[in-house]
Specification:
By secondary structure, this protein is an alpha/beta fold. It is 43% helix and 13% strand. The chain has a six-stranded parallel β-sheet, with helices on both faces. Helix 1 packs across helix 2 and helix 1 packs across helix 4.
């Protein structure tokens, strides 16, 4: 029986303060293509993979043939921020503290390629990160369990020895579907009630708040 434990983290809105950048850049990409979607709706969709996000936002109006153009426009707009993506307070310290307690640190995100590299650069904790799973590595993104399961398998642990930290309802649902303890942070801007309804075991203000309460968190409950 393995004694390893996995701390799995979403990135956008959880470790790096980027959700509202995604809202604005998706809004602009959609606007350029003639789609007028309220920013509040885009905010609630952040965390889904590109195709799922567009399906969620555009519904019956969606023309899948537009997907590549819309995603490319979003990427181009968002990439202008790559050199200045802001890590949330204590994000790197949280990962290092958990690694120091023997946790395998794995990232699970819909980001990939240059975007993932920029996010990891912002966190500046590659010395303790075992690896990352992105949208490129799984067939279905969150809220499907695939990203969480892939990250957990990368760490080589069963569901009961993993804790997942995210900031959206999609994160919580993905963790619950893989039978992994789900912990939420409010730093992505999603209300506490929505996160709890989606399956959050506990909710913290941000990484700094979780770090300050590690001794009484789900991480302390996993021997």
């Amino acid at each position: 029986m393995t004694t390893k434990r996995a701390a799995i983290f979403d990135i956008d809105g959880t470790l790096v303060d980027t959700n509202h950048l995604h809202v604005v850049t998706w809004w602009e990409a959609l606007r350029q293509a003639g789609h007028h979607v309220p920013m509040r709706e885009i905010h609630r969709a952040v965390g889904l993979g590109g195709g799922d996000l567009l399906d969620h936002l555009l519904g019956d109006e969606r023309d899948p043939a537009e997907d590549d153009q819309l995603s490319a426009a979003h990427h181009t707009l968002y990439a202008t921020y790559f050199e200045r993506l802001p890590a949330l307070d204590s994000a790197g310290d949280l990962l290092r503290s958990l690694a120091g307690q023997g946790w395998e640190i794995v990232l699970a995100t819909s980001a990939g390629g240059a975007e993932l590299s920029a996010l990891r650069g912002a966190i500046d904790a590659d010395d303790v990160i075992l690896g990352a799973t992105s949208a490129d590595d799984v067939e279905d993104g969150k809220p499907a369990p695939d990203p969480v399961r892939q990250a957990r398998e990368l760490a080589g642990v069963p569901s009961e020895r993993a804790v997942f930290v995210g900031d959206t309802v999609w994160d919580m649902r993905a963790a619950v579907r893989d039978d992994v303890t789900a912990v939420a942070v409010l730093s992505g801007g999603i209300p506490r009630a929505d996160l709890e309804e989606a399956g959050a075991h506990a909710v913290y203000r941000d990484p700094a708040d979780l770090l300050a309460h590690l001794a009484t968190s789900a991480f302390a409950d996993t021997p």
